[in-house]
Design a protein that fits this description.
The structure is a single chain. This protein has 160 residues and is an alpha+beta fold. The chain has one domain. It contains 4 helices and 3 strands; from the N terminus they run αββααβα. Strands 1-2-3 form a 3-stranded antiparallel beta sheet. The longest helix is centred in the first third of the chain and has 25 residues. The mean pLDDT is 88.
Length: 160
């Protein structure tokens, strides 16, 4: 698979993430709420300086370091190819990376991440489009590696 397709996918995800954040910031006051699917979902404008569940709040340098390391590992693996990821797994990695990039853009530009999707049917932290891609990409990647790509875990595949 040509890397241009992964790059276009990443650009589309980041674009969708940034557009939704812009629309929320421009139409909802901080802490404000707009019902979307009553009793199910609403849009709530929140500024998050941490990670999931506001963990590591204010540690922007840590998020930048993790993202830089993740970028380096992806590039290393893409050009070395020792892990033998399938196309599907590379798409999962692209989804995770795109979500991370969308949130990193917020952190660098504003010092916080804009979150806006709130579940009303259960108690759950407010999240955004980038978080959805990170979470879904991680879950799909783990399922693929555990159920369909079991040779990934063999000792001879480990980096030396």
């Amino acid at each position: 698979m040509q890397p241009i397709y992964y790059l276009l996918f990443i650009a589309a995800v980041v674009g969708a993430d940034q557009l939704t954040k812009y629309l929320v910031v421009s139409s909802i006051v901080l802490g404000g709420e707009v019902s979307f699917l009553p009793g199910f979902l609403c849009f709530t404008y929140v500024q998050n300086t941490g990670a999931a569940f506001s963990s590591f709040e204010g540690q922007q340098w840590l998020f930048a370091l993790i993202f830089a390391a993740f970028t380096g590992l992806i590039l290393w693996e893409y050009f070395r190819g020792r892990m033998g990821f399938t196309r599907f797994e590379w798409w999962c990695i692209a989804a995770i990376y795109a979500g991370g990039l969308g949130n990193m853009i917020d952190r660098v530009r504003q010092g916080y991440v804009v979150d806006m999707i709130q579940t009303q049917f259960m108690e759950f932290p407010v999240f955004n489009v980038a978080d959805c891609f990170i979470t879904c990409g991680c879950i799909a990647l783990m399922i693929s590696l555990c159920l369909f790509h079991k040779d990934f875990w063999k000792d001879d595949k480990k980096c030396s």
